[in-house]
Amino acid sequence: MSVHRKRLFLAVASVAGMLASPALALARAHKPSADLGLLSHPSGSVPWNIVVLLTVLTLLPAIVLSMTPFVRLLVVFHFLRQALGTQTTPSNQTLIGLSLILTFFLMQPVGTAVYDAALVPYEHRQTDAMGAIELASGPMRHFMLRYSREKDLALFLELAKEAKPKSADDLPMRVIAPAYLISELKAGFQIGAVLYLPFLVVDMAVAAITTSVGMLQLPPVVISTPLKILLFVMVDGWNLLVGSLMKSF
User: Fold this and answer.
1) Which of 14, 21, 101, 218 has a 20 to 30 Å separation from 122 between CA atoms?
2) Each residue's pLDDT tens digit in the chain (249 positions)?
3) What is the 3-state secondary structure (H, E, C) of the chain?
4) Distance CA 73, CA 84 (A)
5) Nearest by Cα to 83 from 189, 193, 184, 188
6) Does the model's pTM come out above 0.90?
């Protein structure tokens, strides 16, 4: 595997700034006892490194969900499906898969930065697992701060009863992570609301026409749904939506 492909693979597991290599650590742990001393670090032992890495691996789905653009993308796609009135098309699995692919696309530069900052020193035994996690939080911190609103940061800073820092870089992750999450939710709802408006106009127009001609027995959604799908296809909606979402980052 080339160095570039190796970085791409590792970026998937490091989108939250917690890049680590559980498989590598486990493989080293099963080497003869003579090699265990090479893996030891003054601030930690091999068993604790394995515990930390496996814990990060267990929390990886929650990290991807709450510390990446995944939330914003998924919220917008669900708004789109509701606006089109297609109920279960595209399916949840399709929307989640598309959100994950776009998240990987957006987070690849951050993952590469985390790889260089955290995993490379860890592989060269220059730090232990906890030190690697601390190093990995740097690129993630800068990414999340870029899209976190000051109002949300101030809210969680107040709730945490923390002193006001001199700069944003001094904010703890326990403040940045929830502020980033609700900022992404707000952005997703804003985009979804704007996306909903043109389809709402189509629904209202169809309902007004069917009522005026006396078609009271025919639900307006039966007519408006194919019209909305046709409109979305004619304007190449997926290209426009995905392009606008990518540019919002």
Assistant:
1) 101
2) 454 444 544 444 444 444 333 433 333 444 443 343 434 444 444 566 677 667 767 777 777 777 888 889 999 999 998 888 887 888 888 999 898 899 889 888 888 887 777 777 777 777 776 677 777 777 788 888 888 888 888 888 888 887 777 777 778 888 888 889 999 999 989 998 888 888 888 888 888 888 887 777 777 778 888 888 888 888 888 998 888 888 887
3) CCHHHHHHHHHHCCCCCCCCCHHHHHHHHCCCHHHHHHHCECCECHHHHHHHHHHHHHHHHHHHHHCCCHHHHHHHHHHHHHHHCCCCCCCHHHHHHHHHHHHHHHHHHHHHHHHHHHHHHHHCCCCCHHHHHHHHHHHHHHHHHHCCCHHHHHHHHHHCCCCCCCCHHHCCHHHHHHHHHHHHHHHHHHHHHHHHHHHHHHHHHHHHHHHHCCCCCCCHHHHHHHHHHHHHHHCCHHHHHHHHHHHCC
4) 17
5) 193
6) no
- The token duo for 152 is 């949300």
